[in-house]
């Protein structure tokens, strides 16, 4: 009989904690597209070796340029790279800001008859500049805070929620656990806070308070939000009613804690300002909806279960499913037509 623990917020079967000299990378397509999956293996021992070895050449005529010329070329390439990068970035941001300031619905546009990018009288949605992963990495700390003022204020509130650990001795935390039980099993009697009945919900032991660890109190809030806003989806996932289920299923409640922790990491919420592409895009969503994180949690939970069914996974494969869920969610957040959580493709899987 295996027992699972939370290690940095993820489910790890104790029997699987072993070292390996091979790393496994999963590339996957959208949910249901199993034919795009492939695996790569590579030895870890060689990761520090350069891709091209160092060779000494005695023939000086084979060196095409002198050291000084090579150095000058490298400097020119670097200057050109940064010139093109910032020129492109400034142009895109300028156009974006101009669309906001001089858009048809702005105060200034009421007095200045400027041309707009609209057709047939319908306003197009504004899209933030699209940058490559390398460009995001280079300019992530240059994103001006005034671009998402409402998002940053809500981010601070969200980060305060993240800083609250679950405390089984606090009455409000105890009440939250009781509320979750009533939402999950409205027709059943409420058990004591330490009871074997809690295992039916997917807690690992009779005392749910021992399972939170890295998830914190917000992971319990996420479960309650899910149960209240999308009760049909919550109940179907809790009772594993969709698809052909495995003989050894993932524990519902503990999986929920893992999803909360995964989102916190993916969105880089514990840093002062999100630096990942997903985190920066999420900041925009948070500016539009104060409950964006909680809604995104529900989408992620539903997406994870869909991945679970497609992969025909079993308990021991939960970590792989969670990783592929994160990859899919990051890809969906990068879509240009996503302006709110409801625009995510997987949002349509949720049922109220």
Task: Record keyword descriptors for this entry.
single chain, 352 residues, mainly alpha, two-stranded antiparallel ribbon, 6% strand, disordered N terminus
Query: What is the makeup of the main sheet?
Result: 2 strands, antiparallel
Distance separating the two termini: 36 Å
Q: State the helicity in percent bands.
A: 40-55%
Determine the mean pLDDT: 74
**Structural class determined from secondary elements:** mainly alpha
Strand order of the largest sheet: 1-2
**Strand tally, please?**
4
By DSSP (H or I, 4+ residues per run), the number of helices equals 10
**What Rg do the Cα atoms give?**
25 Å
Order of helices and strands: EEEEHHHHHHHHHH
Strand content: 5-15%
Shape: globular
Uncertain stretches of 5 or more adjacent residues:
1-9, 12-68, 104-128, 139-147
Reconstruct the topology from this structure.
Blueprint: E1 4-7, E2 10-13, E3 22-27, E4 38-43, H1 67-101, H2 133-139, H3 149-162, H4 171-184, H5 216-229, H6 231-238, H7 252-266, H8 277-288, H9 292-310, H10 318-333
């Amino acid at each position: 009989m295996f027992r699972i623990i939370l290690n940095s917020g993820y489910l790890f079967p104790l029997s699987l904690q072993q070292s390996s000299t091979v790393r496994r990378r999963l590339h996957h397509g959208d949910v249901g597209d199993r034919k795009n999956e492939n695996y790569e293996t590579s030895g870890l021992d060689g990761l520090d070796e350069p891709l091209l070895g160092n060779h000494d050449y005695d023939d000086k005529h084979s060196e095409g340029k002198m050291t000084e010329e090579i150095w000058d070329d490298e400097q020119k390439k670097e200057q050109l790279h940064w010139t093109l990068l910032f020129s492109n970035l400034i142009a895109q941001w300028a156009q974006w800001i101009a669309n906001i300031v001089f858009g048809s619905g702005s105060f200034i546009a009421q007095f200045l008859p400027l041309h707009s990018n609209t057709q047939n009288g319908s306003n197009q949605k504004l899209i933030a500049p699209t940058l490559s992963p390398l460009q995001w990495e280079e300019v992530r700390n240059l994103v001006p805070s005034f671009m998402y003022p409402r998002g940053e204020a809500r981010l601070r509130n969200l980060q305060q929620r993240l800083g609250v650990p679950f405390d089984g001795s606090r009455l409000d935390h105890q009440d939250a656990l009781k509320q979750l039980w009533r939402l999950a099993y409205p027709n059943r009697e409420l058990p004591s806070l330490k009871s074997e009945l809690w295992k039916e919900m997917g807690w690992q032991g009779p005392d749910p308070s021992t399972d939170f660890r890295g998830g914190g109190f917000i992971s319990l809030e996420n479960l309650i939000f899910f149960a209240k806003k999308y009760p049909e989806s919550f109940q179907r996932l809790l009772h594993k009613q969709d698809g052909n289920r495995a003989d050894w299923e993932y524990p519902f409640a503990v999986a929920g804690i893992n999803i909360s922790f995964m989102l916190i990491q993916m969105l880089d919420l514990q840093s002062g300002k999100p630096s990942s592409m997903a985190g920066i895009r999420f900041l925009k969503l948070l500016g539009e909806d104060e409950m964006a994180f909680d809604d995104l949690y529900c989408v992620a939970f539903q997406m994870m279960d869909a991945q679970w069914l497609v992969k025909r996974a079993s308990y021991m494969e939960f970590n792989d499913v969670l990783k592929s869920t994160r990859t899919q969610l990051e890809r969906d957040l990068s879509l240009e037509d996503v302006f709110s959580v409801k625009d995510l493709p997987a949002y349509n899987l949720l049922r109220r």
